[in-house]
Structure formats: C-alpha cells, structure tokens
## 1
Amino acid sequence: MSLSKESTVNFLKLCQRVLHVSRKPDRSEYFNVAKITGIGVIIIGVVGFVVSMIAQLLGQ
C-alpha cells in the first residue's frame, strides 16, 4: 500500500494546523493534569490489588 502525494501533503497540512493551534500548558493546567493522572493510576492499582486479593481468597 503506497501513499499518494496528495494524502501525504494533506497529512502534513493537518499536522501544521494542529501545531499552530496548540499551546504550552500553564503551570496550574499542568499540575491539574498530573493530579488527575496520578489519581487514575492509584485507582487502577487499588482495583488490581482488590481483584488479586479476591482471587487469592477464592483460590483457597
């Protein structure tokens, strides 16, 4: 499957548009994203731990 020249040019134009619209997050926005991501990781870890404990209890 080869890419045509038009599709490559269109893709590059879309990339340029995204880069033009995007901006660097400020300090508070960065910390909010970091907090939400951290909370998500903790929740997934707790759920995995609970499932692991239930599996061990049911196995005995």
## 2
Amino acid sequence: MGQVILITGPARSGKSEWAETWARESGKTVIYVATATRNPDDAEWQERIQQHQNRRPQDWVTLEVPTTLSATLANTKANSCVLVDSLGTWVANLLEQDEVSWASTVAEFLVTVQLVAADMVFVAEETGWGIVPAYPLGRKFRDRLGALVRQLGGMCDSVYLVTGGYALNLTALGTRLPDSIDDE
C-alpha cells in the first residue's frame, strides 16, 4: 500500500489546493481523478471546473470518474500519485444506490485503497457541522459521506483538516476514535 492522505474541510477552504500541493511534491506521475460530471447548462459549475483545471500542471493526467472510483484506483501504477477530488461528489453521484448496494460499494472502495501501491490523496467535504438537513436525501448524503470519511480516515497515514486558511494535521494533533460507526 502506498501513502494514503485524506484532506477534509468546508467549502472554499483550500482543501483541493492543499491536495494538489501534496501530489505535486510527491515527485511521482500525478493522476487527477475528477468525480464531478460536466453540465454545459450550468455556467457557474463549468467555471469552477475550469478554475481547478487552470491550477493543475499540464503534465498531470486527468480522469473523469463520476462513479467507478474503485476500478480506477485498482488500475493505477505504483510509481504514481492519485489525487481524488472529491469524495463528496462521488457519494452524491451514487445517492440512488440502496443501502445494500452502497455498503458493497464502500466495502469495495476501502479494500481497494488497502491494495493499491500508488500514493493516494483524497479530498472530502465536511458536512454536518450545522443543522440536520430538512430533507431525507440531504440526511442520506451527510450520513454516507460522514461515515465514509471516518472509515477512510482510520486507514490513512495522515488526515488534514483545512479551514480558515490553515491545514491542520489531525493525525499529529488528535486521538483516533474506535472503528465503530454509530448514528451520531
């Protein structure tokens, strides 16, 4: 297993930029895995995608992978650094899966992460720091992403929280919780 880094934080906190720094400094071939899907009818979304693209070096390989993340990771070479941006978008793309299918998807993903020899940097949004979403789909998204981030975080070499313009190394500052995931 290569080095696994998780970078999490709120919107516009700089987590993607911190992940890009990690990938660039790895000295390896960088494979940027974008989980977002393009929507030509949404000019603001297209602008966000363009901003991300403009920041990346030209020699990085970009793959658009809205749902098949495990298969993509499984096919990476050991001498590369895979940057996945973002797990929140990946979760959103799979919200229509029933609970059994989702559990299988997560299990496959977590096993794959443990088997991949490449370095991996994952970007994930933090949710649930505010009110409980008023709609079932919002609660489903929040709960699925929160559980996934917790499970992945337990497997990572380093976990960073990016907020307020700072990247905090939670693995150095914090104490890891037990593996069980309760409804919190």
## 3
Amino acid sequence: MTVLVTGGAGYIGSHVVRALGAAGLDCVVVDDLSSGHRQFVPDGVTFVDATILDADVVAKAMVEHEVQAVVHLAGYKYAGVSVQRPLHTYEQNVQGTVAVLQAMQESGVDNIVFSSSAAVYGTPDVDLVTETTPTAPESPYGETKLIGEWLLRDAARASGLHHTSLRYFNVVGSAVPHLYDTSPHNLFPLVIEALLEGRTPRINGADYPTADGTCERDYIHVADLADAHVVAARRLLAGEPVEPVYNLGSGDGVSVRQIMDAVARATGIDFEPEIGERRPGDPARIVASGELASRDLGWTMRHSIDDMVRSAWEARHAHPA
C-alpha cells in the first residue's frame, strides 16, 4: 500500500515518512521545500518537488504511484507569524487543503489523515481540553486548521471520504540524529541556537495567568506523534472506524520556564532566560487529554521532557553550522 505524504520533507513529515516505511507502507512525498529539506527524505522514497496548490501535479503523483491514502502535513504552521501574514496562511492552509482534496477526488483516493492543531481551541476555559471542547481559534493559523477540518467533514458528506484529524501543539525532539527541527519560530530550535551562539534564550511573555507566568503547553515527542499518524492511516486503509478528531495530548502541561530548566539540565549550561513581550496569537494554556487517541490509536507519551530536550540537543549537534 502506498501513502502520499504532503510536507514529507519537513521536520514532522520526515519522521512520519520514516515511521510509515518502518510499518511496511510505501511513501510518496510532495513538498515544495519552502521549509523542508530534500535530504530529510529517505533514499528510495519517491519525491515530488511541487506545491500542494498545484492539484494537477498532486493528482498525477497519486495516479502514477497508485496512492491509497494521504497524510496531509504541508502547510504554514506558525501561529504567531500568521497574525502578520494572514493571507499567506489562508492560501497555504485552506487553498492548499482544497487542492489536495480536489486531487484526491480526481484520482479516486478516499482516505486522509489531516494534521490539525490544538490552536483550534484558542484559549479554552477548561483545565484539560477534550475533543468536545468548543473551538475558538485566536490566530489565522488556528482558523485555517479548523477550516481544514470542516473541508474534510463536508467532503465526507458529499463523496464518502474517510478521514480523521489529529490535533496537537508543540512537537519536539528527534527520533534519529539526521532529522531535526530547523524552524526559525519554534521554541526548541530557538533556545538551542541561542545557546550555541552564546546568547541568552528568551521567553516571550511571563505575565500569563499560569503557575509561573509563562505559557503552558503539551510537548510531545515527534516519534510518538509519527506513530499515531501511522496507526490512523492503517485504520483508514483497513476500513476500521475512526473518530473525525483526536487530540494527541499529554494530559499534563509543561511551562516554557520548565522547558528552559530542562534545557539547562540537558546541556549543562546554566542560564537565566531573558523575558520579552508576548507574541500575538499565543494563548496562555492548552493542555489536552489524549484518552480518545489512546483508545483508538495506541497513543501514549513514551518520552519524558528530558528525553525530548536531550534528543533535540544531540540531533542539532550532529549538524554543526
């Protein structure tokens, strides 16, 4: 069986491709390399250098390689920056998803796992988010991810599309040294690069209504996340029932300051982070229950925060600038 992975040359996408391959599934990667890396795609995996906005190219790849399912990860993923770039975010995430669904319809592919986000919840007024928590996104990024879920829902009503959406927030760590997070906006690479350059890491806002004043999130290891995508894809391919939405949550939030402490432990570098202003679009706390995903997708947190930080640090050191 062959799975097409959009964004498969990116940090998360390359881990998903690796996990799919380990599970015995063939992959085709479609990525325009706007943030991904060609060297992240394993040898032997078909790579199509194209934007997902080009539905004809995506459909051609599906037909040529007899694709039976899609894992849709491609998109613009930066909540804070999306506030300054709303039109770009909507183009990549909404128009891009429409194009992928059009390509699937044209080529007869009817299974899709969608990479959504906990950003669809905005700042929830509950301590622990579940799949029934009302959605109220506070950034264009969160809005586009919710619209993506709606697109899948409506396509399913119209054509019988089989789908599920996985909502998660901060994905960190590395499963293997050659795959690592190169984002200029994500917390782990920002902190690691600062330390490598002799700068002091920065916390964006320490006046949130949380225990230590810094944002609290689910931090999940990328390998655990990739495994959940594989199980979801295999269930769809087997015709097994899935829920339309799953939270891949830890059930136990970690603050940015606690992450800084873990970085100090992993690196042996003692530092006191600088405190900066809040970033637009950042909610104070999002922590989700992963019980539903545990029931259906075997979801579990196999890595501790220290594991996550240590693997990220080691992977970055394997690639000196």
